[in-house]
Specification:
single chain; 344 residues; 14 helices; 78% helix; 0% strand; globular
Length: 344
C-alpha cells in the first residue's frame, strides 16, 4: 500500500496537521517565555546591550569548532573501526545533526534520523550505524543529567543560597529514572519493535533495504559490553558540554562583564538543562534563554548582560545551524539528482 491509496491520504494528512499544530503550539509557548523575559528585564535590556550581540556572536563562532570535534569523537567511539566514516565526513554529519536538533521541531532526535539517512546514502552499514546513534543519544542524556547536577551545585555554592532544592531534586530524580529506563529498554531489544519504522525513516537511501532489527539490537548490546569505549564516549560528550561553557565565558568577556569559568559552567549547564526539559518547544526558544538568565540572576549578574549573552548563543545557533540545514538540503538535492540519473 502506497501513499497514492485514497485510504492512506487522510491518515498522512492528519499526521501532518498534528505535527504542524504541535510545532505551532511549541513556538507559541517559547514566544511567550521569551516575551516574559524581555518584559521582566525591559528596564535593563537596552538597545546598546542588544546591539553588542552581533560582534560577540561572530567572535565565538570559531570556538564552536572545538565542541563540534568533541561531539564527533563521542559518536566515533561507538562505531566499529571498519564502519566509521572519515573524520571530515563524520564532522559534517555531526554538524548537520546538531543543526537539525537546534532549529527544527524534532524533539531533539531528528538530527540522529538525518545523520542515519545521510550515512546510509554513503554506504555505511545500517545495524552498527543505528546502534551507535542510539547509544550516543543515551550518552547525551546521561551527561546532560550530570551536567545539570553540576550546574545546580555551582549555583548553590557560588550564589550562597539553596534555590528550589526540593523541586530540583524531584526533577532530577525523574530525569534519572528516564535515562535508566531508556537504557534498559535498549538492552531489552529496542530495535525489534521499531524495525519497520526505522526502515521507513531510512527511506530509499542505499543500504536501508539491508536493515535488520535483530542485527541492530545485537550491535547495541556489543556497544554496551565495550565499557571502555562507552566511557570514552561519555567523556567526549561531557567535554562537548564544558567547551560550550567556554563560549559563555567568551561572550561575557566580550560584553564587558567578565565572569569566572565556574559561573560560566553554571549558566551553560542550566541553560542546556532547561532546553532539554523543554524538548517539545522548537529550538528551545525561551527555555534556553530563561535557564541562562535565571542562573545568572542567582549568581548576581546584571540582567542586561545576561540577556545579551543568551542572545549570543541563539545567534550562534542560527548561523551555525542554519548553515547545517542549507548543507543538508544541498546534500539531499544531490542524492535525489543521482537517483534520478540512475533511474533515467
Amino acid at each position: 500500500m502506497t501513499s497514492s491509496d485514497p485510504t492512506v491520504r487522510p491518515v498522512i494528512g492528519s499526521r501532518r496537521l498534528g505535527f504542524g499544530l504541535y510545532a505551532l503550539a511549541g513556538l507559541a509557548l517559547g514566544g511567550v517565555l521569551l516575551a516574559f523575559l524581555f518584559k521582566q528585564l525591559g528596564a535593563a535590556a537596552s538597545w546598546t546591550g542588544l546591539l553588542a550581540v552581533w560582534p560577540a556572536s561572530l567572535m565565538v563562532l570559531p570556538w564552536f569548532l572545538l565542541p563540534l570535534a568533541a561531539a564527533w569523537l563521542s559518536w566515533r567511539c561507538l562505531l566499529p573501526a571498519r564502519s566509521a566514516p572519515a573524520a571530515r565526513r563524520g564532522l559534517y554529519l555531526t554538524w548537520v545533526g546538531l543543526g537539525v536538533n537546534w532549529l527544527l521541531p524534532v524533539a531533539m532526535i531528528g538530527g540522529e534520523v538525518v545523520k542515519m539517512r545521510l550515512a546510509l546514502a554513503k554506504g555505511m552499514r545500517a545495524a552498527p550505524l543505528i546502534a551507535s546513534l542510539v547509544a550516543d543519544k543515551t550518552a547525551q542524556v546521561a551527561t546532560q543529567l550530570v551536567y545539570t547536577l553540576l550546574g545546580l551545585g555551582l549555583v548553590v555554592v557560588l550564589g550562597g543560597r539553596l534555590v528550589g532544592s526540593l523541586q530540583a531534586l524531584l526533577g532530577l530524580m525523574l530525569f534519572s529514572a528516564g535515562v535508566y529506563g531508556f537504557y534498559r529498554i535498549q538492552r531489552g531489544g529496542l530495535f525489534t519493535g521499531l524495525s519497520r519504522r526505522l526502515g521507513a525513516l531510512a527511506g530509499s537511501a542505499p543500504g536501508s533495504g539491508r536493515f535488520s532489527a535483530s542485527r541492530a539490537d545485537a550491535a547495541l548490546r556489543r556497544i554496551y559490553r565495550q565499557r571502555r569505549a562507552f566511557w570514552a564516549a561519555l567523556a567526549w560528550r561531557m567535554l562537548f558540554r564544558l567547551l560550550l561553557a567556554f563560549e559563555i565565558w567568551l561572550a561575557f568577556y566580550w560584553l564587558g562583564q567578565p565572569v569566572g569559568i565556574l559561573e560560566a559552567i553554571a549558566m551553560e549547564s542550566l541553560a542546556q538543562g532547561a532546553r532539554a526539559a523543554a524538548f517539545f518547544i522548537p529550538a528551545g526558544i525561551g527555555a534556553q534563554e530563561g535557564g541562562l538568565v535565571a542562573a545568572g540572576l542567582l549568581l548576581g549578574l546584571p540582567g542586561e548582560v545576561l540577556l545579551s549573552a543568551a542572545l549570543v548563543k541563539r545567534v550562534r545557533e542560527l548561523v551555525v545551524g542554519g548553515g547545517a540545514l542549507v548543507a543538508w538540503h544541498l546534500d539531499e538535492m544531490n542524492l535525489a539528482w543521482r537517483r534520478h540519473r540512475e533511474v533515467g
